[in-house]
C-alpha cells in the first residue's frame, strides 16, 4: 500500500499537467482565432486606412481617390487618408501598396491604366503584373482627349494629324512615363495613321496637371489625358481640345468632334481608375471594398463629387474589373510590341 501512494500521487500530477497544457493550447487557439478575426471583414476596418495614389496631386486619380476617401471615411467611421507616392510612371506608389505593405486591407492602391495594364504591357520584366493585384472594383472612367495650346494653328485632330505626318520629329508630347496612359494614347493614334511613334519625342512630366501646364506654357505641343484633367485650362482659354476619343461627344466639350467623326474609327484607349489590394489580402476584405464601392456609386453626394471633378461613374465589380484588365493587357502588349513602347 505504501508503494502505491507515490505512484498514485505521480499520476495525479501528470493528469493535472496534461489538463493545464490543454487549457494553454485552447487559450492560444482562441487568441490566434481572435487575431485572424481581426484581419477579416467582421471588424474591418478598425483603424486608419492609407489610400495610395501613385501620381501627383491634382490629376484624375488623385481627385477620384479623395472623393472615395471622403465617402468611405463617413461610411466606415474610420479615417481613409490619401497618400501621394509618385515616381516611375506610377510604379513607385503601386509597388509600395502592393508589395511592400502588409496585405491586411489597411494600405490600398487607387490604380489606373498607367500603373497596371499599360505598365505590364510596356515592360519586358515588370516588377508588378495583373497577378500582383486583387482588383476590388473600378470606380470611374473618362474618355481620352487631345489638347494643344489655345493659339495652336490646328482646328481639329484631322488637321493636326496631317501636320504630324509631315513633321513627326517635331511632335512633342507630355507623359509621366514611357509606358503610361499618354504614351499608349499617342502610340495607338500614330499607328492608325501610319506615323512612326519612335520618331516623336516624349517629354517627362509629374502628372496630368504638370503635362497640361507644359502644353499651356508652350514647352510641349500635345497633351493626351482624360477629358477632365485638361478642362480647367480649356475653360481659362489656355488650351483647346482637338478631339474626344470614341463615338460620343463629351458633355464637357459638346462642340468638339469625336475621333470617329473625324475619321479615326478604331481608337480604343480610354482612362479609368479603381481599387487594388495586395494579392494575399483576405478575400472578405476585398469583398467589403467591392460592396462599398458599389454602394458609393449610388450615393448622390459622390455622384455630384465625380461630376465636380469631371469624371464619369464607371463601376465594375471585382470579376468584371479583373476580366477588363486581362483584356487590356493583351491588347496593349500587342500595341507596345508593334510601336516600340515595350522595352
TrEMBL record:
Organism domain of life: Bacteria
Name of the protein in its database record: Tripartite tricarboxylate transporter substrate binding protein
Pfam families: TctC
Family annotation (SUPFAM superfamilies): Periplasmic binding protein-like II
PANTHER family: BLR1237 PROTEIN, TRICARBOXYLATE-BINDING PROTEIN
Entries under PROSITE patterns matching the protein: PROKAR_LIPOPROTEIN (PS51257)
Family: Belongs to the UPF0065 (bug) family.
Amino acid at each position: 500500500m505504501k508503494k502505491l501512494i507515490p505512484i498514485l500521487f505521480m499520476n495525479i500530477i501528470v493528469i493535472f499537467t496534461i489538463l493545464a497544457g490543454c487549457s494553454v493550447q485552447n487559450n492560444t487557439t482562441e487568441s490566434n482565432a481572435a487575431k485572424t478575426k481581426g484581419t477579416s471583414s467582421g471588424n474591418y476596418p478598425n483603424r486608419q486606412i492609407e489610400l495610395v495614389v501613385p501620381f501627383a496631386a491634382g490629376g484624375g486619380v488623385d481627385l477620384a481617390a479623395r472623393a472615395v476617401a471622403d465617402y468611405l471615411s463617413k461610411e466606415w467611421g474610420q479615417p481613409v487618408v490619401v497618400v501621394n507616392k509618385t515616381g516611375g510612371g506610377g510604379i513607385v506608389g503601386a509597388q509600395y501598396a502592393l508589395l511592400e505593405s502588409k496585405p491586411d486591407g489597411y494600405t490600398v492602391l487607387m490604380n489606373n491604366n498607367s500603373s497596371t495594364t499599360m505598365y505590364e504591357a510596356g515592360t519586358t520584366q515588370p516588377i508588378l503584373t495583373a497577378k500582383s493585384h486583387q482588383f476590388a472594383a473600378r470606380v470611374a472612367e473618362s474618355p481620352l482627349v487631345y489638347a494643344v495650346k489655345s493659339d495652336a494653328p490646328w482646328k481639329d485632330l484631322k488637321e493636326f494629324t496631317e501636320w504630324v505626318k509631315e513633321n513627326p520629329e517635331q511632335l512633342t508630347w507630355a507623359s509621366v512615363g514611357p509606358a503610361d496612359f499618354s504614351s499608349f494614347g499617342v502610340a495607338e493614334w500614330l499607328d492608325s495613321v501610319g506615323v512612326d511613334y519612335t520618331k516623336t519625342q516624349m517629354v517627362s512630366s509629374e502628372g496630368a496637371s504638370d503635362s497640361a501646364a507644359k502644353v499651356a506654357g508652350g514647352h510641349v505641343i500635345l497633351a493626351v489625358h482624360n477629358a477632365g484633367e485638361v478642362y480647367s485650362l480649356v475653360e481659362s482659354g489656355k488650351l483647346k481640345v482637338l478631339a474626344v476619343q470614341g463615338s460620343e461627344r463629351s458633355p464637357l466639350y459638346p462642340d468638339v468632334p469625336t475621333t470617329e467623326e473625324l475619321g479615326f474609327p478604331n481608337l480604343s484607349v480610354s482612362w479609368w481608375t479603381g481599387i487594388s489590394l495586395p494579392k494575399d489580402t483576405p478575400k472578405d476584405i476585398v469583398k467589403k471594398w467591392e460592396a462599398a464601392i458599389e454602394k458609393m456609386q449610388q450615393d448622390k453626394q459622390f455622384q455630384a463629387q465625380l461630376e465636380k471633378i469631371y469624371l464619369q461613374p464607371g463601376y465594375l465589380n471585382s470579376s468584371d474589373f479583373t476580366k477588363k484588365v486581362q483584356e487590356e493587357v493583351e491588347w496593349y502588349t500587342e500595341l507596345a510590341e508593334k510601336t516600340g513602347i515595350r522595352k
